[in-house]
Design a protein that fits this description.
By secondary structure, this protein is of the alpha+beta class. The chain has four domains: 6-155 and 266-360, no CATH class; 162-253, no CATH class; 365-505, no CATH class; 562-645, no CATH class. Helices cover 41% and strands 13% of the residues. The chain is built from 21 helices and 16 strands. The protein has helices at residues 6-30, 42-50, 74-82, 88-98, 124-151, 162-183, 189-198, 201-206, 218-224, 233-253, 283-300, 365-375, 395-413, 420-443, 447-453, 490-498, 502-514, 583-591, 600-608, 616-619, 638-644; strands at 59-63, 101-104, 109-112, 266-271, 274-279, 311-314, 320-322, 325-329, 335-341, 347-353, 359-363, 469-476, 479-486, 562-566, 595-599, 659-663. The strands form six sheets. A four-stranded antiparallel sheet has the order 4-5-1-6, sandwiched between helices. Helix 13 (395-413) runs antiparallel to helix 14. The radius of gyration is 36 Å and the shape is flat. This is Reverse transcriptase domain-containing protein. One of its GO terms (molecular function) is RNA-directed DNA polymerase activity.
Length: 671
């Protein structure tokens, strides 16, 4: 992993913009590479794998390439670029960009690799997509050709199994007999029917009985309705209707088509170096496809397929793993329910087996436990535990930090998995109780005492939910403001996530691209800088960091050897006694921050008494805004606040959830 310097990042961003303009229409037409592309993400891949076109696909190949980025053949990569780019200057420039040097601190020397893409670069992921586009084309073209050959271009429509076709013929015969009875309903109908049933189906057709149409299984039907014993034509009609109903019931339990004559299909999706193929082909064909892919990667891309990590999975038996999700399908077809009108005009509900095996996603359970354990939220068995370093923060900040993690987990999964309430409950439980245990460690108490201390009032408590709430009061210009922070429950987080309604939007995009329609995307990247004068509009700096070594020297602007100068006794000063013009000192007083960054040279001059520059308090910027949790500092400089309202850099206290509680009471002191 190499971290490029700032100017290199600017050049790499420009390269990415050029490559994106050239290759995006091509990637859109393929509609299978969904990683590190504008307007694409993980959920686009999950939509493709769990949509209507995935029904009935039960075999998966989970792909893995050994040392994917490190083994890229640069010569072949340039050849791939040459297919769509004719500008030789740009191609030559990219060749030089790939032949970079980096310093190896262990070897104490500069190294230039002969192969591979530079990881850590802004343009590297998109370059990898371009290199793997040959692989994308091969998978799509090779599998389409292979499956067309195996399908042997079958006739249109379903090819039903033999037993089902036989049952359908019986039902046709019963229908013709019932029509004949209804058209010839008199006293001689029973005797005439008995005479006709004694003849063979061939004779009946030749003599043009039943409109000359062939009748099937006459002997079986005659025996079933006891035609020789019945004396009432009405009872025969009832028996025929009953036979028809039983045959229909049997057909509903059968496959709609012959499982040995299925039309082979596949879905291929790649996200960066992770890829997966879903198909309904048999294991023998899937193994052959895996071997074909291994040979192609070796011969065409100088890449090696990891045979140990490239898994073939029957997702009826166990899930395939992809991008933090488990891709599954049902072991047997489910019973569906639909309504229809009866002959009497009433709405009736009918149960029937669904048409195919629906593919669905669930969270990758073991991966989530591993990640939560790695971050310190639980032990390796999934039991919640406290996070010690967070115990030094304020109570409301601890709650808000855990809320952000809960929102992130729920927003990632909620709309795209089956039964989100059931499948997410365990992880939200771990996060919630990790928060409560962190608060318990901070206050040296138990979980039960934390629930009592931060109890939600009865009027605000929702039935069936047990959570905690922290209140904060602040006095600003003799006015009292109050805000509460409530630890999110799974129900609240789910409701907020489902209101986003991203799945219908992404599903619509996927099917439009599949139908070769042109897509106009919504502007979603709100944090990307698009204004050339952005530098002039930066009016806030970070004042929460304990030691902001990434800030320049406030005196000379140097970025080297930056140290923190402590302003004497600022944290002990009374807020009211600080000059209104010195907004920086007011902010430090409110937040107990008393540090200002200076380079080592300026810092030494200050402490030695040789500092002859402008007064420190005059150098400090007067426009200071904090857009995070509590934003009292934004209201220190009222004139600056009014100027920036137009730029939407700031929100009022009410907009941020603070409630006005009245003015501070003045105590009468004896004179």
């Amino acid at each position: 992993m190499t971290i490029p310097p700032f100017m290199d990042k600017i050049v790499q961003e420009a390269i990415t913009m050029i490559l994106t303009a050239i290759y995006e229409p091509y990637f859109e037409s393929l509609n299978c590479s969904l990683g590190f592309r504008p307007n694409k993400g993980v959920h686009d891949a999950i939509i493709a794998l769990t949509g209507a076109n995935a029904i009935g696909l039960n075999m998966a190949i989970e792909g893995d390439i050994k040392s994917a980025y490190d083994k890229v053949n640069r010569k072949k990569f340039i050849e791939v670029l040459g297919r769509r780019i004719q500008d030789r200057k740009f191609i030559t420039f990219l060749e030089k960009r790939l032949n970079y040097e980096f310093y190896d601190s262990k070897e104490n020397k500069y190294i230039r690799e002969k192969e591979g893409l530079p990881q850590g670069g802004i343009d590297s992921p998109y370059m990898w997509n371009i290199y793997m586009s040959i692989f994308d084309e091969y998978i799509i073209n090779h599998l389409e050709h292979k499956f067309d050959k195996l399908n042997n271009k079958p006739a249109k429509g379903n090819i039903a199994p033999k037993q089902r076709r036989s049952n359908d013929k019986k039902r046709t015969t019963i229908k013709k007999i019932l029509e004949w009875i209804n058209n010839n309903n008199d006293e001689s109908t029973l005797s005439r029917l008995k005479e006709l049933m004694k003849k063979s189906a061939k004779t009946l057709k030749e003599e043009n009985h039943f409109q000359g149409e062939p009748l099937y299984a006459l002997k079986d039907i005659t025996k079933t309705i006891n035609l020789g014993k019945e004396k009432d034509i009405k009872q025969i009609k009832i028996n025929l209707i009953e036979i028809n109903r039983k045959i229909l019931h049997k057909n509903l339990k059968m496959e709609s088509r012959d499982p040995n004559r299925l039309k082979l299909r596949f879905i291929y999706i790649r996200y960066a170096d992770d890829w997966i193929i879903l198909s309904n082909a048999k294991l023998e064909i899937i193994n052959q496809i895996k071997e074909d892919i291994k040979i192609f990667l070796k011969e065409k891309l100088d890449a090696e397929l990891s045979t140990e990590k490239t898994l073939i999975t029957d997702i009826k038996e166990k899930p395939a793993h992809f991008l933090g999700f488990e891709i599954r399908t049902y072991k047997s077809k489910k019973i569906g329910r639909y309504t229809k009108k009866s002959h009497q005009g009433k709405q009736i509900t009918i149960k029937a087996i669904t048409a195919g095996y629906k593919v669905f996603a669930t969270p990758d359970r073991q991966r989530q436990i591993n990640r939560l354990h790695m971050k310190g939220y639980c032990d390796n068995q999934g039991f919640p535990r406290e996070i010690g370093f967070l115990a030094y923060l304020d109570d409301f900040i601890i709650i808000e930090r855990f809320n952000s993690v809960i929102r992130g987990v729920v927003n990632y999964y909620a709309e795209f998995i089956k039964n989100p309430k059931t499948n997410l409950s365990r992880w939200i439980y771990i996060l919630r109780y990790s928060c409560i245990k962190t608060l318990a460690q901070k206050h040296k108490s138990s979980v039960r005492e934390i629930f009592k201390k931060y109890k939600v009032p009865k009027e605000l408590k929702k039935p069936g939910e047990n959570t905690i709430m922290a209140k904060v009061k602040n006095i600003i210009n003799e006015e009292i403001y109050e805000k509460t922070w409530t630890l999110l429950t799974l129900k609240d987080a789910l409701q907020a996530a489902l209101r986003l309604k991203r799945k219908p939007y992404l599903n619509d995009i996927y099917w439009k691209l599949k139908n070769k329609e042109i897509i106009t995307y919504e502007a979603t990247d709100k944090h990307r800088i698009t204004n050339d004068n952005f530098y002039e509009k930066l009016v806030w700096i970070n004042i929460r960091t304990q030691a902001s070594f990434d800030l320049p020297c406030f005196s000379c602007g140097s970025l080297e050897n930056v140290e923190m100068h402590h302003v004497n006794h600022v944290r002990k000063q009374n807020y009211k006694l600080i000059d209104n013009e010195k907004t920086w000192l007011q902010a430090m007083s409110l937040r107990n921050r008393n540090q200002v960054p200076y380079c080592r040279e300026c810092h030494n001059r200050i402490h030695s008494g040789n500092y002859g520059g402008e007064k420190i308090s005059l150098q400090i910027p007067k426009k200071i805004y904090d857009n995070r949790i509590v934003t009292i500092e934004s209201h220190l400089n009222k004139s600056a606040l009014d100027k920036t309202k137009k730029l939407n850099y700031n929100k009022t206290l009410e907009e941020k959830g603070w409630q006005y509680k009245g003015k501070k009471r003045q105590r009468n002191r004896p004179t």
